[in-house]
Amino acid sequence: MNHEIKKISKIIDELSTFCLLHGAKLMNMSVENNKDHFKIILEMDNLDYSNKKVSRLEKLLNCPRQAEMEEFYWELTGESDHDSELSIVGMMVDKADIVFEENSLKLTLYRYK
User: Could you tell me the end-to-end alpha-carbon distance of the chain, in angstroms, rounded to an integer?
Assistant: First the structure.
């Protein structure tokens, strides 16, 4: 379970870095540790992003979870300034819901136990 908590922390770190790098002025995050899953909700305003970039983000975060890749690469998340690390986050979560309206973005990520 200790590694599971560290993985959640790395996901949060990567998402926070992503928001700040893209001009978010206000960011709210919550993490729920439920019986069968973790749920991370991230809301941000004034994001310097476009619909095209949100579409790419959605593809990165909704790739199938890959436990084998995750086991080798999860420790690398949060260590670089590149969006490519969001693909690692995508491999670490089971589902991502994204809502983008008027430069406000809401991400809801689920990681099943």
Answer: 9
Predicted structure pTM score: 0.84
- CATH assignment at residue 59: 3.30.565.10
Q: What is the count of structural domains for the chain?
A: 1
Rounded CA-CA distance 94/24 in Å is 25
Q: Give the domain range for residue 83.
A: 2-112
Pairing type for strands 37-45 and 104-112 reads antiparallel
| Distance separating alpha carbons of residues 51 and 3, to the nearest angstrom | 35
pLDDT digits (tens, 9 = 90+) for 26-51: 999 999 999 999 999 999 998 888 88
Beta carbons within 8 Å of 41's beta carbon, 6+ residues apart: 29, 30, 31, 32, 106, 107, 108, 109
